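Residues determine shape. Take a concrete instance:
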Amino acid sequence: MPGSKFPTINKRIYFITRRIAGCFVAVFMYVAASAQLCSGSLGDPVVNITFGAGVGPGAALSAASTSYQYTTDACAVNGFYSILNKGIECNYGWHVLPGDHTGNTNGYFMLVDASLEPGIFYLDTVKNLCANTTYEFAAWMLNLKFVTQGTRPDITFNIETLTGQVLKTFNSGDIPVEQTINWKQYGFYFTTPLNVSAVVLRMINNAPGGDGNDLALDDITFRPCGQLITASVQGLTNDTIDVCDDNSNLFTFNAAVSSGYILPVYQWQLSTNKGTSWNDIVGENNILFDRQPTAEGNFWYRFMVVEEGEGTAASCRIASNTIIVTVHAKPLVDAGADRMLVKGNAITLMGNVEGENVTYAWEPPNFIDNIHTLTPSVSPVQDISYQLSASSAFGCTNSDQVQVKVLSGLYIPSAFTPNADGKNDTWKIPFLDPAYHYTVQVFNRFGQMVYQASDEVVEWDGNFNGKLQPIGSYVYLVTFKTTNLKLQGTVSILR
């Protein structure tokens, strides 16, 4: 299959990458059953038969995979199977399944109603394995019946060479009747002989059908199994690290490899998509790895081991536990534009903070009504600088400042010369802060308003309706919505 890191087994493998991306949260119980599962470290799944995902019943398996007959009916009858993403309570007391074994409501599983005679109900050829390598085979299964009457499923798993030599056999025993939905993982490990890179998986139903022997099957995996590998961070007791993007600390990772490897080949790997895919870190082939500071993001690290001569294919490598480094961004802090106020009045600061569970405060606390709000009212008696500081839940900090200029009064020019000589061409009232919610109006000698500005920069060029106004005196009126203050006077146009 192009673009996949998994080998092609049959068309069902097409669903792997879409399936594993969003189905790790289960809504019901599932546990590992008592079985011969790998006690060391595992590699990535060489095969992950998930049966796909989608809406409505899934497609039938190939004729080579099962001798059972396909049906879309959730209540299959003896000798039939379905590919479903949910189950219903059939007349004979089946569990109502809300999804596959992971709890994914769109994830498919194989529902099997055993035939009246014992026999093979699932068969597959697994390719691209590494020779002389130990693998863990595992599958999730569930007894569909929650009533005690009837036959319980009993499955034998055979791993065989292509010539029919049995490499390993495992029997599940009776899969128990349980009152709650309780998926269990059954499995064992086996070793491929020299020069053998493909095996046959044969799943045999040992009990007769009829009354009972109804089961659900999901997520069949083959994963390389090896000696225990442990990755850790020097100086820390856990393998989860949270740092800020301005942290310059260098972390040293260390791998501990069990003595069972003869000539091991090492490789550190990195994932930036939370384990969906992994990439080798070029040149990092030693037990120790120094992680350099990075920008914000999620960074997952692990240590891979393979015996020399077995290659570097995913089907051979064994992986350590994962070290997770999360680099958090500093809070975004904006104290707002510099402000101006007339002495004896108050003005509102316009701060803004964004980040992960941030707390913030203004300082100094002088002449401010509340240091813990983003929009405090301030009334300083002289020029002052306020600093807005923020801290995230992970201790990342940032700050910004705003200057407040205190004026003893407003300076309003009494004349200007709009003659386009570049000097005093406009009438301006400096230091008017929009927070005062002011309106400035200018009237000619006939009482006609020739200029108006509200909560914006006051700058009149002497024009009205596109015409330059004549020389003379004009009356201005400045009013404030938040106070009763009114300023009135005259401004002259000169040539």
Observations:
- The chain has four domains: 11-225, 229-328, 332-407, 415-493.
- The CA atoms of residues 252 and 290 lie 4 Å apart.
- Confidence is low (pLDDT under 50) at residues 1-34.
- The longest helix spans residues 16-20.
